[in-house]
Structure formats: structure tokens, C-alpha cells
Amino acid sequence: MASVHEYKRLENRFVQRVKNDAKNVVKFFNEVLDSFVRFLTRRYTVVFVPHSEKKVYNLHVTVLSICCFLLVVAGILGAFLFYGASHSSTVISMAEKDGNLRNAQASVDQFRDEANALIKEARNFENTLVNVLSSLGIGNNNTLSQNSAGDLSSIIGIDETPQGILREIQDIRRLTVFLSQVDEPIKELGDTLNSQIALFTEIPSIWPVRNGAGFISMFFGQNIHPIHGQYYIHRGIDIATGRFGDPIVSSADGTVVTAEFSYDYGNYVIIRHRHGFYTRYAHLQNFIVQVGQRVQQNEVIGYMGSTGISTGPHLHYEVHIGSDVVDPFRYITIRSSLARQGR
Fold first, then answer.
1. Which of 74, 144, 221, 308 sits a CA distance of 20 to 30 A from 49?
2. What pTM, to 2 d.p., does this model score?
């Protein structure tokens, strides 16, 4: 029992000590708070003494009011610094935007110059295209100058639009419409040119010596025979280069119908072409094709020589239409100017 009472006394002492300590802490904080409040409410008098006989002014202030005043001043200074920095940033941003605006204006000016140049070239293209199509008998009233939407002549000189859209943008839009509409005539022109190209490969239209070498030493028609010295009808043209071995080419696509040697023509080749054309290549040093072989225009069929009745290395070249012999020079469209120089 004694031990129980002893524990009870110890417990009571501990509780009492805790209460006393709590009271001391509260008392300490109360004293600190009272001291702080007394400090903040401590009054000071500021005396304004004029250098005259006027009334002296007394200003009573407390520490709390001074602290509030300092906080207000600090807030004003902070706001001033903040808005000053913000203003500087705004000025810098405006300067950058002004520079960007100037660059954009320069780009717009350059765009206008390029657009005007493009439109002028497009108008030249339209005129050229119209002339080419007209010369070929190709026309399309819906896509060329008669179409108001695609008429490039109406593009130059358009006024500024009331909506503020650049005139050049409208020009580009009309140019786009025009280009989309000339697609069909261009395709028709391409088909026509392809057919013309195919026709030129089917008729004897190129110089029969590779790379346009040589000159015409004797033309078609009445001439003096170089051996007999008498007038006779020369059934072709003679092309000479002054040397042996120059490549002889087919003047059009065709099929070899003759490749042999004769007393007068020497080594010669005859090629049948479309549309009733035949060509003969005579006095060859040798030929490298055979009967029935299909040859293409500008393909080598032999080499220049002086076989048969000949006074020197040259090519005797004939063109036949059916059973008629015609002047080959009339059908040569490539190297014809050089051939005239040799006349």
C-alpha cells in the first residue's frame, strides 16, 4: 500500500509541475506580446519648428504607424520598379515587332516585284502559246484569251481591292486559273508535236553522214558525168568528206530491202520506209546491215568508200517515192544549211 501512495504522490507532483510550466510559458508569451504591443503603441512626437514666429506643429506618431508608412512606401517603390521593368520589356518588344514589321514590309515589296515579273512572263507565255496553237490549227475558246477568268491581258493594272487584299494576290489567283485551263491545249500540242516527231522519223529527213559531216559535191538533176564528161540526169546527190570510213546512217526508220554489190553502185543499201519512201546509199566501203533488218533513223548502216564507178570517196544518196526519183535535198531538214554552203 505504501508503494501505491508513493506513486500517487509522484503523479500529482508531475501534473503540478506540468501545470506550473504551462502557466510560466503562457505568462512568458503574454509578457512578450504585451511588450511588443507597448512597443508598437509607443508614441513619439515630431516637432516642426518654423524659422519664424508662426505656430509650432506637433506630430504624434506611433511605431505601428511608422511601420505601416514604411510598408506603404516600400510597396509604392516596388510597384514603381515592377512597372518600370515591365515598361522596358514592352519597349524592347515593340522595337522587335517594329523590326519584324519592317522585314515583313520588305518581303511584301519583294513579293510584289516577283509577282509582277511572273505575271509579265506569263502574259508573254500566253501570247506565244496562242500563236503556236494558231499556227498548228489548235484552238480552245474556253481556256485562252477569250476567257475573262483566264485572260492574262486583264491581269495587268488591276486596282487595289476594297477588302485590302494585295492586287498581286488576285493576279496570282487569276494566273492559277489560267494555267489550270491551258492544260488541255498543252496536252493537245504535245500530241501534235509527238505525231510530227514520229513523222520526221518515218521520212528521210536527216543528213545521211554521221554528225553532219561533208558537203554536196554534185546535186540532183542535170550534171556532167565525172568520168564520161557528158550531160546526164543525176538521180541523187553526192556527199563527200575527202576521206574513207565516215559512218553512213539511215535517214529514217525503215527495213533493209537490198544490201549488195553492183558494177556501177559498188556496195549499196536500199531501205524501205513508210509512206512509200525508199532511200539508196551507194559507193560504200562496206555495209553492216542485211536484208530484212529493221533500222532506225540515224543508225549506222555502212561506211563511206569509193566502190563501183567512182572518182573518190563519197556517198551517192537517192530518195524514191514509189517509182519516182525525187531530189533528196528537198527532204533534208537537218544540216540543210551546211549543205547549201557546199553547193
1. 74
2. 0.48
